[in-house]
Amino acid sequence: MNRNIVITGASSAIGAAICRKIVRPGDTALLHCFRNDASCRQLAEELGADCTIIPADYAEPSALDRLCRAANDCDILINCAAITKTGLLVQMPDHDLLSMLDANITALVKLCRAVVPGMLLKRKGCIINISSVAATRGNPGQAVYAGTKGFMEAFTRSLAAEYGPKGVRANCVAPGAIEAGSLKELLALAPDEVRQNSALRRLGSADDVAAAVAFLCSDEAGFISGRTIAVDGGFSRGV
């Protein structure tokens, strides 16, 4: 059966891997990006599905509202877009703090609010939010980012409780040391230490995250809701 799928942050390494794993020919996909719409267009050609690309800066309310209107009739919503800013709380400028709140909390809530009514009419829907191991492991310099991901996980649990009786499932996937995105900067500084934080003593890939998302979107995961699945190689350090 063809599906309507919305994936935010589709131009990121993890977002693109999720698109390749989830979207099938015959599906209708809305791919959100921030600025890198050229990568999204290339990805859309590769997917072979009916794709619409919507660039949107979450700091612009009108852009977010436009995205929410376009997303309101979907079967699967995957919130992959996020902003990560690292810095000690007392030194973090307001614009960095607000950018994380806009992308990681406000946009998440508004997009979920936009898609739930259509899912309720169908009595079926799947929402996957991409969290982080930072939500449960304290790390210096990540107080605000970790807080936004902690909100995401709590929000997802309550969303699952509110709308599960109507057939809507909501889950999180929490990546750990994945060789993609902002982690690459850390790898350049301390590659061995990062690997030692994993019980498997290696890094994960964007495809590892995509595989977990694909499972949660499948009928095989039809009795899983309100959960956070860690894709972290057995993250073994932290508090």
Your description of this structure?
By secondary structure, the chain is an alpha/beta fold. The chain has a single domain (4-231), classed as Rossmann fold. Helix content is 45%, strand content 16%. The longest helix is centred in the middle third of the chain and has 29 residues, at 94-122.
The value of Rg in angstroms is 17 Å
Strand runs, count: 7
Helix content: 40-55%
Number of domains: 1
Per CATH, the class reads Alpha Beta
Number of helices: 8
User: Could you name the CATH homologous superfamily?
Assistant: NAD(P)-binding Rossmann-like Domain
Q: Assign the CATH topology.
A: Rossmann fold
Tell me about the largest β-sheet.
7 strands, parallel
In the sheet with the most strands, the strands line up as: 3-2-1-4-5-6-7
List its traits.
about 240 residues, alpha/beta, Rossmann fold, seven-stranded parallel β-sheet, about 45% helix
Mind sketching the topology for me?
Elements: E1 4-8, H1 13-22, E2 28-33, H2 37-47, E3 50-55, H3 61-71, E4 76-79, H4 94-122, E5 125-130, H5 143-163, E6 168-175, H6 183-189, H7 191-196, H8 206-217, E7 228-231
Helix pairs in contact: 1-8, 3-4, 4-5
In short:
This protein has 239 residues and is α/β, with parallel strands linked by helices. The chain has helices at 13-22, 37-47, 61-71, 94-122, 143-163, 183-189, 191-196, 206-217, and strands at 4-8, 28-33, 50-55, 76-79, 125-130, 168-175, 228-231. The longest helix is centred in the middle third of the chain and has 29 residues, at 94-122.
